[in-house]
Amino acid sequence: MAEIVLFHHVCGLTSGVRALAEDWRTAGHVVHTPDLYGGRVFDTIEAGAAFAHGPDGPDQDALADAAVAGLSARLVYCGISAGGMQAQRLAQTRPGAAAAVLLECCIPLTGEWAFGPWPDGVPVQIHGMEADAFFAGEGDLDAAREIVATVPDAELFLYPGDGHLFEDRSLPSYDAEAAALLNVRILEFLDQVG
Prior knowledge:
Strand order of the largest sheet: 2-1-3-4-5-6
Order of helices and strands: EHEHHEHEEHEH
CATH superfamily: Alpha/Beta hydrolase fold, catalytic domain
Number of domains: 1
Strand content: 15-25%
Shape: globular
Helix content: 25-40%
Number of helices: 6
């Protein structure tokens, strides 16, 4: 059994994110789903981004830190898209991480956005669609390839297509076939690290 914290994507803690967490609970894992938007959910990436980066947007770093403050150090940090940034930051900076799962997001290990080196002994899975404009087109895929090339326990899984948030069954971008394969791979990984 693994203990996981799953950070939602830019549209918020949607029913699709909750359903993914429930899949993992059903498989025997403990899953925490912090809501960094205070209950707000958006139908589009654009609307979610406008809120997240607007004047009333939440301090996501502070909220993510608070969400894990009372939890075990040995967590699997998982995040979808924008939530992947929180998952990666905490996996790299909060001592004791068990593993990380980054969905459609990856930050380089060096440069302006970097959180520092990848911690020794922390395995990571990275998932994304090969033609996703956000993942493949904005440098995340390159960052993922860098991590796989330098971190011993790192895996990158690419799925055919160009959808973003393809694992969220509550959104139009949902791809049932890719999401099912993603879930199988994540559950196998969680069984190994748990």
